[in-house]
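Q: What structure does this chain adopt?
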Amino acid sequence: MSEVKADDQGFTLLEILLVLILLAGSGFYLLIKLPVNVEKQHLAFESTKLLEDIRDTRQAALAENISYVVKFYYMGDPHYQIFRQGKLINNTYLQDGIEFLGTPQDLTFNALGRSAGTTITLKNSLGEQKSVIIAPVGMRIREK
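A:
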């Protein structure tokens, strides 16, 4: 077993500098990458929430045998509203930086769960896009 000398304490200056350089480098990398990932996560969250709301609305129209309407508002604060036989039941605003691309067509689900097919595209402030596609034939609702 080796003995510890009285003057053999602590770290060398080179070891401390090396650790500080590694920490600074990893911190700089996170500082650059973090905002990009946050924007992607906001877009993915809003797209998934829109997809689920449209699927739930379609299922409610089928189950209750009545009509539902989803209206999209792209001017000002982008948001969408869900109406059950003309009565507002849900009002959802998109997060900051997320907006509709173009002018989405309003959806009307009848008692058979049918609506016109359309594509609703969301865009974040970086220009990335995600779409919710409502197929006109089989009424399959999916995310792209």
